[in-house]
Amino acid sequence: MPWQTREFVQAFRWRIEELSGRLANNSLAVAGLLIVGLLCVVAISASWLAPYDPQAIDTWHILEPPSRAHLLGTDPLGRDCLSRLIYGARISLLVGIVAVGIATVIGTILGALGGFYGKWIDGLIMRFVDIMLCFPTIFLIMAVIAFLEPSILNIMAVIGLTSWMGVARLVRAEFLSLRQRDFVLAARISGASNTRIVFSHILPNAVAPILVATTLGVGGAILTESALSFLGIGVQPPTPSWGNMLTEGKDNLEIAWWLSMFPGMAILVTVLGYNLLGEGLRDALDPRMRDSGKNN
What we know:
The chain is an all-alpha fold and 296 residues long. The chain has helices at residues 2-23, 27-44, 46-49, 81-117, 119-133, 137-146, 152-161, 165-178, 182-189, 194-202, 207-231, 242-251, 258-285, 287-295. It has a single domain (2-57, 70-295), classed as Orthogonal Bundle (MetI-like fold). α1 runs parallel beside α10 (194-202). The protein is elongated.
C-alpha cells in the first residue's frame, strides 16, 4: 500500500509543520522542550560526561560528601554519584520512552478500531479497556514482574502493556468525533476506502491529542520505573537507575543526605519537564484551548 503510506506521510508532515509553528509561540512548551532536550543530551552523552565509571568500587572513598573530586559525593561502595546519576538518566529515559511508545501504539490501534467501526467492535474493545482499568496499574505491574525476571526489557514491556488504556479511550473519542466531520463524509462520497480515510484524513487530525498524551505519559512511566526500582523489583544493581539510587539513599539517610537528594531532584526535574512540555503542547495544539484563550 505505497500510496497510503505516501498520503499519510504527506498529511502527517503538513500537520506537524502547522503544529510546530504554534508550539514555538508557547512558553510552557518551549521550557519543557529545553529541559527534556537537555536531559536527552545528557543521557546520550553519558559515556563522555560521566567523570568516573559508574560501577567502579572504591573502598577508600566510601560515603564521601560532595567535594571537588566527587561533585555529588559517593555511595556506600565508593562509587561516584554524579556518574551514576548521569548513567541513570539514560536508563530512566529509555524505559520511559520505550514503554510509552508501546502503550501509544497499542492504544492508538485499539482506539482507532473502536472509534472508526463502532458497534460490536467498539463495545468489545471498550469492555476490555474497562476490565484493564479495574486493576490498579502499579499493583498489576508488580504482580506481573513477580513472575518475570526483573530486567530493563521486562520493565519496559510490562509498563507499556499495562498503560495503554488512557490512549485507547482518547483516540476512540477523537475518531468518534472526526468520522462525522464534513471532510470525512466527502471522502466517503468520493469513493475513498476505509483505510484511505483513516490514514489520510482522520489519523493526521488526531495527532495532536496523541502527542500530548504520549508526552505526559513519559513522565508517568519514569515515575513508575523509579518506584519499581526503589522497591527492588525494577532495574537491578549494579546497573544505575534513579530508583535504586534512592534505595541506597534510604538506608543511609541520616549520614548521607546527598544519596537521596540528587536522584530525587533528577526525577522531579525530568517529570516536571515532560509535564510542562505536555501542557504546553495541549495549549498550543488544541483548538478548543486556543479559542477559549481568545474569548477570555
